[in-house]
Write a structure and sequence with these properties.
The complex is a heterodimer of chains A (510) and B (323). Chain A is α/β, with parallel strands linked by helices and 510 residues long. Chain A has helices at residues 44-51, 74-79, 97-102, 111-129, 144-157, 174-189, 201-207, 230-238, 297-304, 330-335, 345-349, 356-359, 378-392, 408-420, 438-453, 465-471, 493-500, 503-509, and strands at residues 4-15, 18-29, 33-38, 59-64, 67-69, 82-85, 162-166, 193-198, 210-215, 218-224, 256-266, 272-282, 285-290, 312-317, 320-321, 338-341, 371-372, 375-376, 426-430, 457-461, 474-479, 482-488. Chain A folds into 2 domains: 4-238, 3-Layer(aba) Sandwich (Rossmann fold); 256-351 and 402-509, 3-Layer(aba) Sandwich (Rossmann fold), CATH 3.40.50.300. Classes of the chains: A alpha/beta (510), B mainly alpha (323).
């Protein structure tokens, strides 16, 4: 084995009482794609921030190409050929591609020469790595996949030999992710070293040569990707055996609980987001809606949940009409037994500045259970919150803690506990496991199956096709606002992918 | 011919009245483009005007007065920067505080030092920025059309007026043709992008705040030593806020800022011109209505006539490094 591109020796970092990185030893071979996998909070991002000079390690040594170095700030990291593609793009949205690439390495106080040089260099990189993107395009007008390409170009423009990608596929559709992996392979073949940080096992298996697993701040194992398996990695990540496939029996569908008829919804600009959608959800079944993000799934469930107005169509809950004119009161729908776990827990599901117990009754705060006369019965609410914390294993188990301080998975459990424990007849659930750890995913999936087995009607929306396939009893595919197909749970992944991409629509048009 | 001259004079006073607005508006542009909202333009201008009036009274020098105005305005800008950049305080609160401090302190110090009810003594012309007659103005004066335009409109302003209008192309050039400008625009949109590119966000923002202070100081000096002859209590009279409105109309762009300021200056000039005059059909226009015109226009335009004005995305938000 040649000299490692990066070697970390005994790197240790604490933030107050949190031991974010414990005595990390890690060697990353030059010219490989090295995956780092771990749950949220395992210390992956901290480790990479140390590598990029955002933080200083409390102790330990970093060697780049065998030389011990000190990385005091991002400039130093860039100088050593380390480039970072951040999870949230570090791009100026109303700048052109060229301006973004130049920012920080303009060359001289006047831009003129720098622009010419950057343009030439971009052209060269384009040809060398097939990373074509229009240098004069505005970032905000580019799709996310291309925006990410600009981030990669930024790093290469700065002469990066080692490229760190932090959760790069979080915002990408599956085809875009595959395309990214092809780009990474090409970069590797040209001799670059790539570090891929993710919590998705599928990506590790698909894209990496080696993989290191982090758990609670430590690197617990490093494997050759070809010599390990998804099951082993999952177990290493969580520290116990994990069931990756949901165990469930046959569905016992009963009467129709939720019925959607010819529903059409427009967004604020007047664009049709849901186009004449009709379907039923029966008691005791899970209906999954598959689709690439942005094809109307969000608008569909928001309309049913009473927080968005429809243009036309009807929605019936237990055979009774729901007001979908936008004047509906979501509170009234809750009283009628329709619970909604919104897709975006940060903006719609929780008030992050509230304490946990306050969020645990949000929307149900008018219930006499939680009231003492006109006032909130804080003791009763906290007692109720503690019960939910115990049942859903929400950590840390402190109802007085600010909600923002919980991890993504635990925040999601707070929302789920609130909605499921009301024992609704119909549960609408959007992106149940977005940004949630493997261990928590297993738990959440079990709860959803339990709801079904208890005879509830579940409408599930997720952009994770695997999740839709493993949970749903029936799958509806949405494309451009329309329900373009219905399949059963055994449907072929490729066939669903074609439906999601609107392939049949295109063929029909031709 | 009389009405031609009258119109020229109206435009002439438009230019005079626009100049301080334009300086303040460009000041705000530097600051807000870097993501620091500055409601304290008014206070900085007022403090600058007072400093200029006081120093001109003591030393009889307009240049020293200008330097003093810039110094005090930059100092107040740094206070705003210290509160909102270093300590991540609320930028609106900090700006309002500066306005209050300036409004109160200038009157108190003015009364204590000069005993004229908060104003500074009237300045002799030797201690002011006087009108400059551009070369050839007198000789060209008799040439029809061009002569009067050159003599009335273009020539005969103080150096600070010319400076204000020259700063428009200069600011455009800085913003779009220099490294500093690129970074300034970037830090107002996405400071994290600037930070990860290895550029110091606080230092960049402090420089923007200093630019803002310099321009507000010039605006203040203009009021006290060019347009007026000494400091008068509350002499900015809301110009800082009008400048902010102009900045929004202009969607934070320099050339458009000039047009917006000229429009406000014109309304102001028109208001003065029409005072006590009787118009056909309407009759005598109340002074108060004319004075209110710029504000009415602000509301009307902001209510939808200018389209959507999107402020710099990171404006008003302190930058905190992500953990």
């Amino acid at each position: 084995m040649s000299v490692a591109a990066i070697e970390l020796i005994g790197v240790d970092k604490r933030f107050g009482t949190v031991h974010a990185n414990r005595d990390i030893h890690l060697a990353i071979e030059k010219g490989t794609i090295h995956g780092i996998i771990g749950e949220n909070g395992a210390g992956k991002s901290t480790l990479m921030s140390i590598l990029y000079g955002f933080y200083q390690a409390d102790s330990g040594e970093i060697r780049i190409n065998g030389n011990a170095t000190k990385i005091s700030d991002p400039n130093a990291a860039i100088g050593m050929g380390i480039g970072m593609v951040h999870q949230h793009f570090m791009l100026v949205e109303n700048f052109t591609v060229l301006e973004n690439v130049m920012l920080g390495v303009e060359g001289a106080p006047l831009l003129k020469n720098g622009i010419a040089k950057a343009r030439a260099e971009l052209k060269r990189l384009e040809q060398e790595y097939e990373l074509d993107v229009d240098p004069d395009a505005l970032i905000e007008e580019l799709p996310v996949g291309l925006q990410q390409r600009v981030e990669i170009l930024k790093a290469l423009y700065r002469g990066a030999e080692i490229l760190v990608l932090d959760e790069p596929t979080g915002v990408l559709t599956p085809p875009e992710a595959d395309h990214l992996f092809r780009i990474l392979e090409q970069l590797r073949d040209q001799g670059k070293t790539i570090i891929l940080i993710t919590h998705k096992l599928r990506e590790i298996m698909a894209a990496t040569d080696n993989v290191s697993v982090m758990r609670q701040g430590s690197v617990v194992a490093t494997r050759k990707t070809s010599e390990t398996s998804v099951e082993e990695l999952a177990e290493l990540m969580v520290g116990r055996r994990v069931l990756l496939r949901v165990q469930k029996g046959e569905a016992q569908p009963g009467e129709v609980k939720l019925s959607v008829e010819n529903l059409t919804v427009r967004d604020s600009r007047g664009v049709v987001m849901v186009d004449n959608a009709s379907f039923n959800v029966r008691a005791g079944e899970i209906v999954g809606i598959a689709g690439v993000a942005g094809n109307g799934q969000s608008q569909l469930i928001e309309t049913i949940a009473g927080i968005r107005a429809a243009v036309s169509g009807r929605v019936l809950l237990d055979g009774q009409l729901i007001d979908i004119t936008g004047a509906a009161d979501p509170g009234e729908l809750r009283d009628r037994g329709l619970a909604h776990v919104p897709e975006d827990r940060h903006h719609m599901g929780l008030v992050l500045a509230f304490e946990e117990y306050e969020n645990s009754i949000l929307g149900y705060h008018d219930d006499p259970l939680y009231l003492k006369g006109p006032f909130l019965d804080i003791d009763a609410i906290k007692a109720d919150a503690r019960k939910k914390i115990e049942k859903y294993d929400i950590r840390p188990g402190d109802p007085n803690l600010k909600t923002a301080n919980f991890s993504g998975g635990n925040q999601q459990k707070i929302v789920l506990a609130r909605e499921i424990e009301r024992d609704p007849g119909v549960l609408i659930i959007g992106q149940p496991t977005r940004g949630v750890d493997v261990g928590a995913i297993e738990f959440i999936h079990k709860r959803i199956i339990e709801m079904r087995d208890a005879g509830k009607a579940v409408l599930l929306v997720s952009v994770e096709l695997d999740e839709i396939r493993s949970l749903s009893d029936r799958i509806l595919v949405m494309f451009a606002g329309r329900i373009v197909g219905e399949r059963d749970a055994e449907a072929d992944e490729g066939e669903l992918g074609c439906l999601m991409a609107g392939v049949e629509q295109l063929e029909a048009a031709q | 011919m009389d009405s031609f001259v009258a119109i020229l004079q109206l435009f002439d006073s438009t230019i005079r009245l626009s100049a301080p607005l334009l300086l303040a508006c460009l000041a705000g542009l530097y600051s807000e483009r870097a993501g620091i909202f500055d409601i304290g333009l008014e206070g900085k201008m007022l403090a600058g005007a007072f400093a200029a009036g006081a120093v001109a009274t003591w030393y009889g020098s307009a240049s020293l007065a200008l330097i003093a105005a810039i110094a005090i305005s930059v100092a107040l800008g740094l206070v705003h920067g210290f509160a909102s950049i270093t300590h991540r305080g609320n930028q609106i609160v900090s700006g309002v505080a500066i306005n209050f401090i300036a409004a109160g302190t200038t009157v108190i110090l003015g009364q204590a030092w000069f005993h004229q009810g908060g104003r500074t003594p009237s300045l002799p012309n030797t201690a002011r920025f006087n009108a400059i007659n551009l070369p050839g103005a007198e000789t060209l004066r008799e040439v029809p059309i061009i002569g009067p335009i050159y003599f009335e409109l273009i020539s005969g302003h103080s150096i600070l007026v010319y400076l204000a209008f020259l700063l428009v192309p200069f600011t455009w050039w800085v913003l779009y043709r220099t490294r500093f400008g690129l970074r300034l625009r970037a830090v107002g949109e996405n400071p994290a992008a600037v930070d990860t590119a290895g550029i110091s966000v606080p230092w960049l923002r402090y420089r923007a705040v200093i630019c803002c202070g310099i321009l507000c100081g010039i605006a203040g000096a203009y009021l006290a030593t060019a347009q007026g002859a000494g400091f008068v209590k509350d002499m900015t009279a809301g110009k800082g806020y009008i400048a902010l409105a102009a900045l929004i109309f202009a969607k934070w762009r320099p050339v458009q800022a000039m047009y917006a300021c000229l429009l406000f200056g014109f309304l102001d000039a028109l208001g003065i011109r029409l005072q006590g005059q009787s118009l056909p059909l309407i009759g005598e226009v109340p002074v108060q209505l004319m004075q209110a015109l710029p504000y009415i226009l602000t509301i009307v335009l902001l209510a939808g006539f200018i389209g959507k004005a999107i402020p710099p995305k990171a404006g008003g938000v302190a930058y905190v490094k992500e953990r």
